Amino acid sequence: MPKKLTFKQCLAHLWRFLKAHKIKLFIGLFLVIIMQIIYAIMPSIEGMITTQLQKDVGAMADHVPGAHIQMNIIVRILGVLLAVYIVKISSQFASVFLLTDSIQKTMEDIRNAVEVKINHLPISYFDSQKTGDLLSRITNDVETVSNALQQTLSRVIGAVCTFVFVSIMMFSINWVMTLMVYVALPIIGGISFGMVKKSQPLFDLQQQSLANLNATINELYSGFNEIVIYDQQAKAKEQFQTANEEMRKSGFKALFLSGLIGPMTALVTYVTIGCVALYGCLSVLNGTLMLGQLQAFIRYIWNINDPISQLSQLSNQVQSAFSAMNRLFTFLDMEEIVDVKESEPIREVDTIDFEHVRFGYGNELLMKDVNIHIEKGQTIAIVGPTGAGKTTLTNLLLRFYEIKGGRILINGQDIRTLSYHDLRDLFGLVLQDAWLFEASIEENLKYGNHDALRADVVQGAKQANVHHYIRTLTHGYDSMVNESGTNISQGEKQLLTIARALIKDPKILVLDEATSSVDTRLERRLQDAMDRIMKDRTSFVIAHRLSTIVNADLILVMMHGDIVESGTHEQLLARNGEYARLYNAQFAQAEEE
Amino acid sequence: MKPIWNFTKKYKTLLLFDFLSVFGFALSELGIPTIIAQMIDQGIERSDPQVIIRLFVIILIISVLGVCGTSLLAFCSTRISTNVTYDLRQTIFDHVMTFSHAEMEKFGIASMITRTNNDAYQIMVFLQTILRSAMIAPIMIVVSLCLVTLTSMNLAIIVFATIPIIVVGVIIFAKYSAPLSENQQRSLDSMNRILREDLSGIRVIRSFNNEGYEEKRFEKENTWYTSQTNKLFKMMSCTDPLFFFLMNLATIAIYYVSAIMLGHQSIEIGQVVAFVEYLFHAMMSVLVFCMVFMMYPRANVSAKRIQEVLNTTSSIHSGNQTLGRIKKVELRNVSFSYPDGEENVLSDISFEVRQGQKLAVIGSTGSGKSTLVKLLARFYDPTKGQILMNDQDISKVDLSSLRQELSFISQKPHMFKGTIKENIAFGLDEAIMEDIHEAAQIAQAMDFILEKENQFEEEIAEEGTNLSGGQKQRISIARALLKKCGLIIYDDSFSALDFKTDSMLRQALAPIRKDSINIVVAQRVSTILDADQILVLDEGKVAGYGQHEQLFETCQVYREIVLSQMSEEEVSDHAKKTHV
């Protein structure tokens, strides 16, 4: 496994993607700072009004001659205030637009990079990863990073600015009251971060219970048939209840503890406000403080506390964003397959040779010494028990995996000197799980040859015995194949993949257990189609139905990764070896019964 | 949403405390500005330091009371929401356990898992927000509006004027954001689908040199997704500033009006300060309330999905007769169609099997053979006709009693978490080791079990990933044999076995067949050649019923099936062998 990336490396990676949209990002962030300055000034301006009002009211109360509320001053201050509000909302809007644009574009780039990466990793990578795991990683992680950047970035910067600017404003009003706040702040910070830290193991526990509950539900629902048949509903309920109860307990603990953060910090805030109000009111009485300044100061206390308690909650989001980035960038850092830059495309395949090929998926060798010689137009059948390496052989031929020794040659040329494109251009692949993607049937059929005309497509479908079936669908060739192709039976899907291979018109055909999941009556149609497509082509056929293989030019019998016998059906039967055993086993009846 | 309320109602005391504790919050949030206003009006304006100190003490008392209130609020809201989620999950699960096959299939396992887990979780989050924040909002709004009105009617009018603007704003927002977020969700699904396709089809894609094509396909969806997300984020991030801007405008109006009022001496300066504070808190509460408003649609979808499960009742009803050991199974003119299906999956099927006999069912996929045997275990009930066991109509038999008397082995059996032994003894806690060994022996599972490091105590990985398909089938056969029932149904449960194991298994099963009924669904001709009766299905109808030789001569469908797997010589070879 690759090493974990450091915090710095993650940021460096992220920067690589952000760089492309940096202008919008920087202007957006600059506006956030402007906004914070305004935010810090606002209470003071509002306080100026109060001070002015108090002065006038005081004068009126003291019966100073001509004392009245000086509306012209008030209106002037209100005008300034309005201007400040308008600047604030404009900069907020502008920064939201700029930041969202740059962040979302960055996310789009990252997602595209992931897709490109998938196509450039060696296939062996996907053997060890569960598909679902990989998928959830990619989509969830990008979402996590996106949300974190979108919500956290401006808030973290905002919080830091608030702290600095508000502190300046507070000091400019009264340093004694500011010191009171500075005593309270570490307490609030301590409570918030302390409790977040304390609740972390509880949240981990909750996460575990959730995973456990999920696993239990998954298990019990997947085993629903067995539970019903064996009349085990009561036991299942009990099992579920245990997991559910555990979830309730751990969920309550985690949520309650984190729910206490708010009240606790609020207590400190309230007490601070009380102290400031006490000291402030007395100072106003002494005449050392204006009433409006006191009002502004109290608002500053709210303002400075808010980001601090927010930061402690944001720290969770930042943490999960970093672990998401870590996984994401580790994936994007994986070593890609190296391709030959240019090669001479092969026009005709005359010979294919395996020379002393050695191969293993892990460290252990599966194939120790494989040697095959194939001539143009031959049909090669590969037989053997599961795990004998039948599919591996064709995987190596298409260079899905790298061999560990020996050579594979086409027309005497090592396939490693060919580009992937030129090599794979020679092949048509029909696999057991008939893979189609969500698009129209025509698009699926044209998958190997995007320039094919409708007439070519129809021709291919006819040859594959599937044209008639397509015509019975409501929209014919324009009918959509839905995900996992549930609207088309497995057999028809298999025929479609054969048609797809035909339309590509490959030099070499690989049929990997193409008939095994097809029901018996369709098999005739399939067999016909296969016979037709294999004609005049070099073909590799893997099948567990021995009757398919009898007519092959060359039968390779594989055991434990190596070829133990090869020859025609008659030759092999005459040898009375492994092949004969396999062949007879199919029809071994239980005579004793 | 109604069912959620029904679940919540149960916790009356907690709800009451939740409600009361909200006032604690209101007390501190609104009480402190009120007292500061008094400090200004009574202390500063009248130059009385004593009052200021007294009021300071009151602030401290209110703070402590307020914190007690909010802590209690946190406790109650968390208690209620976790309890309701627990109840909800338990109710769903218990209800699902009463389902029959048809209901389970209707929802699908994946969807059922989401409903039990994620949807319940969504409800919990929503409930917590409501109980914690949303309960606060109305009370804060009402209390602060009261205070506002009490302070000054003229100023209050300004505050009231903003309310319709906020309401209209929220409605407009909801109207535009809903389709956007739907688009976004759908586009995310499509993107995930393409990724899934790219992973599952990786070999095909590479063999067709279509990496670039796939990248373009993904990029197109990605661009669309980004544009939708972009709009949605912009819209969401603009609501807060707009809201505060509205509040700012109201503040300006308040200062202006109060300046005039101060001129007339119809208000005191402290009241003005308090008023601005009230406005600030009232608006904050409205903002929180809007959040609930935005969360509602999502929670509502979850609630609906849960309700859908709870409203579904099992289509299979248990009878009250008890069934003894099954010695005879008879189908009389049975037809079946799925509830929403127009065409019959099975039409007019009749047969009779007795103890000691083996009935094989064969036909192409979609011919209804699997459905037929599922009817026997009452996964579904026939739409027409009768199924009799020991001459009792099974719809009148108690479900537990029926299922105790038969074994059903499916093609893709489920392995439970636990050891191999526990999996074989599933449902039979008192099974003795000897019997387990014997069952494993017959099921041809002994060899591979003994090869495992811990043998019978070997842990089976989740979903049985450390076992091959054939090994799972053999364990499930052993599991079924351990029950020693009168009727054993094999629903294509030899499909993953290699030919050799298949034939050895059939030999080992011979003694058991003597005192039980065996019904076998199979794809392979070799599996069924020795059956006493063969039922050939074609598109849900009986295409042939009899023995191999006879069917091979007379039944076109059967002949086709056999010849697709064997050559003519092999068929006659077999005929010779059996006749020797």
SS field, number of helical segments of chain B: 20
- Sheet/helix structural class of chain A: alpha/beta
Radius of gyration of chain A equals: 37 Å
User: What portion of residues of chain A is helical?
Assistant: 55-70%
Please state the overall shape of chain A, judged from the principal axes of the Cα atoms: elongated
Provide the helix percentage of chain B. Answer: 55-70%
Written account of the structure:
The complex is a heterodimer of chains A (593) and B (580). Chain A is α/β, with parallel strands linked by helices. Chain A contains 18 helices and ten strands. Chain A has three domains: 1-174 and 295-337, ABC transporter transmembrane region fold (Up-down Bundle), CATH 1.20.1560; 190-288; 351-586, Rossmann fold, CATH 3.40.50. Chain A has helices spanning 7-18, 22-61, 71-120, 123-128, 131-173, 175-222, 224-229, 233-286, 291-333, 390-397, 420-424, 441-445, 454-463, 467-472, 490-504, 520-534, 569-575, 578-586, and strands at 351-359, 367-375, 379-383, 405-410, 413-414, 427-430, 508-512, 538-542, 554-559, 562-567. In chain A, strands 6-7-8-3-9-10 form a six-stranded mixed sheet, with helices on both faces. In chain A, strands 2-1-4-5 form a four-stranded antiparallel sheet, with no helix packed on it. In chain A, β1 and β2 form a beta hairpin. In chain A, α3 packs antiparallel against α5 (131-173) and α8 runs antiparallel to α9. The radius of gyration of chain A is 37 Å and the shape is elongated. Mean pLDDT of chain A is 82; it is low at 587-593. Chain B has 580 residues and is of the alpha/beta class. Chain B folds into three domains: 1-136 and 299-315, ABC transporter transmembrane region fold; 153-266; 328-412 and 486-505 and 512-579, 3-Layer(aba) Sandwich (Rossmann fold). Chain B has helices spanning 2-9, 12-44, 49-96, 101-107, 109-151, 153-200, 202-207, 211-263, 269-311, 369-376, 399-405, 420-424, 433-442, 446-451, 469-482, 499-514, 525-528, 548-554, 556-565, 568-579; strands at residues 328-336, 346-354, 358-363, 384-389, 392-393, 406-409, 418-419, 459-460, 487-491, 517-521, 533-538, 541-546. Chain B has a six-stranded mixed sheet, sandwiched between helices. Chain B has a four-stranded antiparallel sheet with strand order 2-1-4-5, covered by helices on one side. In chain B, α18 packs across α19. The model of chain B has no long low-confidence stretch (mean pLDDT 80). The interface between A and B is large, with 145 and 154 residues.
